[in-house]
Amino acid sequence: MSGISDRIRVHTGDITKLAVDAVVNAANSSLLGGGGVDGAIHRAAGPELVAECRMLNGCKTGDAKLTKGYRLPARYVIHTVGPVWQGGGKGEAELLASCYRRSLEIARNHDCRTVAFPAISTGIYRFPKDEATSIAIGTVSDFLRQNTMPDVVTFCCFDEQMAELYRRAVTALREG
Ligand code: ADP
């Protein structure tokens, strides 16, 4: 029997190389580019991306906004703003879950069958990786249970250690 875990993939590598309908960007609230995955996406997409982002008027933490993908193999970029980790008492977990949910709603509303996420907030924003992984898998699997679109979600991890955390969480989902 096929389950939700069959619609979840874990990939190790650079998200800017993925030919999916939408890649999610871990942006900052200005949406004007930054370091980490944000910088990599803007470099690979070309200057047209920041030009479109300038017209969006920024984005609140926990929310997401869509642009075209320009020179990326992905058709769209969904820019979401993760919470900066401040110890856990500032609603960080709920804000991170909201990033995944809002991104998936926008993807579904634009008929995206395939979506790739980076590990939002786990870099410069210092969210603990274990907790961020369980929020990512929990929120995405809940959404997939309730929606047929997107069909497949890929978690694109930059390193093998992160990918291992995700694989373990997907296995737990399968066995749970
Ligand atoms: P944040 O500010 O939300 O913490 P970062 O870009 O600093 O965002 O980090 C988010 C995650 O993205 C980290 O796990 C980092 O290792 C990863 N990352 C950085 N560059 C890439 C890339 N090109 N493709 C996929 N993941 C990346």
Automatic annotation (TrEMBL):
PROSITE patterns: MACRO. Gene3D superfamilies: Leucine Aminopeptidase, subunit E, domain 1 (3.40.220.10). It comes from the Bacteria. InterPro entries: Macro_dom, Macro_dom-like. Pfam families: Macro (PF01661). Residues 1-174 form the Macro domain. PANTHER family: GANGLIOSIDE INDUCED DIFFERENTIATION ASSOCIATED PROTEIN 2-RELATED, MACRO DOMAIN-CONTAINING PROTEIN. This is O-acetyl-ADP-ribose deacetylase. It comes from Mesorhizobium australafricanum.
